[in-house]
UniProtKB/TrEMBL annotation:
Ranges of residues in domain Aminotransferase class I/classII large: 3-245
The protein's name in its UniProt record: 1-aminocyclopropane-1-carboxylate synthase
Record-level GO BP terms: ethylene biosynthetic process; fruit ripening
Organism listed in the record: Actinidia chinensis
UniProt superkingdom: Eukaryota
Catalysed reaction, written as an equation: S-adenosyl-L-methionine = 1-aminocyclopropane-1-carboxylate + S-methyl-5'-thioadenosine + H(+)
Required cofactor names: pyridoxal 5'-phosphate
Family per similarity comment: Belongs to the class-I pyridoxal-phosphate-dependent aminotransferase family.
Length: 247
């Protein structure tokens, strides 16, 4: 994103940017109290953008979107919603080191690594998932879910469709949740293509119960290069999670 071009476009296009209506400035109107859950127009634009960068292969319902102060806040909020202190989430290695702080610091949630190796290009396997789950059990940690970053930070790789199907099968068998952090979904420049967990769900025969246990995190920080704007989002089909995340 080029800020020179952005600032120039905003200055020359005040009405599409939302700062003018019928030739009149609406800055004062925007500066007053708004819907605490986000401007409906912005949420509509957000889900349209999320769909567009996924090639319009899936659609998103703005009613199932919760806006947050960045992806960090979104991930932490989901930890509060889905787990109690002392419970665990499984994360494939290597993972973003900031997760050790973001997911655990205030929530009390434990991270248990899913050990992936360079021998198979760090792909997630059934045996690695089960080994991590059993490791948590031995530590008397109740596993509440799996969190993946797709595309990966720090690897820059994307999860394959078989891996995503494997994750859905795993969370179904264990009756746990899956968080797919997709903040780099619009920043893929070569094959293999990025596949969203939403695409796999749409193409599968999984029940509504499984849909309700899959949650997507997104933000504008990476794809648009706007980390200072602190715009993140949680997308979930679970009404209980949505209600809790808004409080």
């Amino acid at each position: 994103l080029c800020f020179d071009l952005l600032e120039s476009w905003l200055a020359n296009n005040p009405e599409p940017a939302g700062f003018m209506r019928d030739g009149q400035s609406i800055f004062r109107e925007l500066a007053l109290f708004q819907d605490y859950h986000g401007l409906p127009a912005f949420k509509n634009a957000m889900v349209d953008f999320m769909s567009e960068i996924r090639g319009n292969k899936v659609s998103f319902d703005p009613k199932k979107l919760v806006l947050t102060a960045g992806a960090t806040s979104a991930n932490e909020t989901l930890m509060f919603c889905l787990a109690e202190p002392g419970e665990a989430f499984l994360l494939p290695t290597p993972y973003y080191p900031g997760f050790d702080r973001d997911l655990q610091w205030r929530t009390g949630v434990e991270i248990v690594p899913i050990h992936c190796t360079s021998a198979n290009s760090f792909q997630i396997t059934d045996s690695a998932l089960e080994e991590a789950y059993q490791s948590a059990q031995k530590r008397n940690l109740r596993v509440k879910g799996v969190l993946v970053t797709n595309p990966s930070n720090p690897l820059g790789t994307t999860l394959t469709r078989p891996e995503l199907n494997l994750l859905l099968t795993f969370i179904t068998s264990k009756n746990i949740h899956l968080i797919s952090d997709e903040i780099y979904s619009g920043t893929v420049f070569s094959s293999p293509d990025f596949v969203s967990i939403m695409e796999v769900l749409k193409d599968s025969s999984h029940s509504t119960e499984v849909w309700n246990r899959v949650h997507i995190v997104y933000s504008l920080s990476k794809d648009l290069g706007l980390p200072g704007f602190r715009v993140g989002a949680i997308y979930s089909n679970d009404d209980v999670v949505l209600a809790a995340a808004k409080k």
